[in-house]
Amino acid sequence: MFRRANRSTPDAIEVIIGPRASYNGTLRSDTSIRVDGVVESGLLQTAANVILTETARVNCEIQARTVSIRGRFNGVITADRVELLAGCHVSGALYVNSFLLDDGAVLDGELHMQGAEDTPSPTPQPSPTSSIPIIPGPYGREQR
Questions:
Q1: Is residue 118 part of a domain?
Q2: Eight-state DSSP code of residue 2
Q3: Residue 36 lies in a domain
Q4: Do the domain assignments include residue 26?
Q5: Three-point CA angle 95, 119, 79, nearest 5°
Q6: Phi-psi bin for 5: left (phi > 0), alpha (psi -120 to 50), beta?
Q7: Burial class of residue 144 in the structure, from the number of CB atoms within 10 Å of its CB (0-12 exposed, 13-18 middle, 19+ buried)
Q8: DSSP E strands, the chain
Q9: Is 72 inside any structural domain?
Q10: What phi and psi, each to the nearest 5 degrees, are found at residue 76?
Q11: Do the strands 13-17 and 32-35 form a parallel or antiparallel pair, or are they unpaired?
């Protein structure tokens, strides 16, 4: 009687925190979450997407596949992809595999690109005894 006949797709937005609502706590969903209002503290967790609209004011931790931000965010994000869109202001730490920074977006914090920490650096490092050659370029000359 109360069971769902069809499961929603992960990209379906079934959870909305409206523009006149505020939330405080842990919110877990298997579908996308849209925030138009205020999240005072806590955790937003989903295997899908989190969308913070231009009216969103969010101060929490987010764990999601993709996070798109147009509003204000302060906290920690762990996601496959983060998109900072025009008009947003983000403070905190971002742990991502893919990152987009639009013109007009502000990031005041840390960006940690994941996935490369276990692989050795492809650039050979000079030995401490070797010297680095200096090659004069076109801008190294005096101009009169």
A1: no
A2: -
A3: yes
A4: yes
A5: 20
A6: alpha
A7: exposed
A8: 13-17, 22-29, 32-35, 38-46, 49-52, 57-69, 72-84, 89-96, 98-101, 106-113
A9: yes
A10: -120, 135
A11: parallel
Q: Which residues contact 34 (CB under 8 A, 6 or more apart)?
A: 13, 15, 16, 17, 50, 51, 53
Domain count across the chain: 1
Between CA 69 and CA 82 the distance in angstroms is 8
Pair of tokens at residue 55 = 């009216």
What is the domain extent for residue 38?
Answer: 13-113
Q: Looking at this protein, which amino acid is placed at residue 139? A: Y
Which class for 62: exposed (0-12), middle (13-18), buried (19 or more C-beta within 10 A)? buried
The tokens describing 124, both together, are 């050979």
- pLDDT values of the chain reduced to their tens digit, one per residue, 144 residues: 455 555 556 678 889 999 999 999 999 999 999 999 999 999 999 999 999 999 999 999 999 999 999 999 999 999 999 999 999 999 999 999 999 999 999 999 999 998 755 434 444 444 555 555 555 655 555 444
